[in-house]
Amino acid sequence: MSARPAESLDVSALAEALRGPLLRVSRKLRQEAQKVGLSAQDALILGHIKKHPGVGVSELADVDQISRPTMSSHVKRLEAAGWLSRADDVEDGRRQGLTATPAGARKLEALRRHRNDWLAARLVRLTPEERARLAEAAAPLLKLVSLEA
Known about the structure:
The chain is mostly helical. Helix content is about 65%, strand content about 5%. Strands 1-2 form a two-stranded antiparallel ribbon.
């Protein structure tokens, strides 16, 4: 893109220019997760549980915007793999909270390291100027995904 004032950028053209590269990077990172033995969905669920220990299946389903039975199936699979555990809620005996096991935390850390290594190996091939431009874009990209429609 040429250097134009931010006010004059055509947002439709910018959306079109960003969509493809963002989708390709996202797809590649999902593929890299498979190499560590986690699906993208597994990584998201396990990561949320690690950040929010004690979260329930219903809350996870709401966060991921999937049905409770579907989330329950994912949770059962992750539990069978030994990556998360359930504990009865002390305040509500009908509810169980989920926590990442040490094995689950190690799996997530392995995924984080693998993805970072993959990305760093590609970033090093860019010019310092290109890396600086990406560094400047990181904060606006994070803001972009956090904005509600």
